[in-house]
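Justification of computing resources. Each target in the renewal requires a structure prediction run like the one illustrated here; the chain below, 169 residues long, is used simply to show the kind of job we budget for.
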Amino acid sequence: MRSRFSAYATAHYHYILDTYTKEKQQALSVEELASSAQGAKWFALKVHPTLAASSVDSTVNSLVNKPVNNSISNSVYANTNVEAADAEQNSKPNLNDNKTVVEFTAYYFENKSMYQLHETSNFIVEDGKWRYHDGELHEDCGKIKYGRNLPCVCGSNKKFKQCCALKNR
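Resulting structure tokens:
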């Protein structure tokens, strides 16, 4: 997931295409990926705690914004606090599974406005490598207003106006 974000941020569209499943690669091209990302300046990524897909007996559609019972928290997908160690453990896919679910929020600037992309993604192992298959966008995607005096979303501990807002406008 993080490598795909970095590839978007640095415009390495060949890599992005290579990280799709073979089924999805057939319907995409490097040119289409470049065109869809044109003008976007990606600057921050937050990977949310999730569960491996094989440990959930339902589809991703039933997971998005709905509670999942587990021993860590009553609701991983709701906005609850999960201890850092548990969150880190749950954000890593189980390498014994052949699929996993990753929820993330990526931030970018386009035309001097800030946007967020909040998605729950499905990854599948093909040829021993994790590949992006598809994802479901959350309702909070799109243009956002972020307070200039709030801590920057990149995690720098600086005010937003003194960090990414300054660098990306």
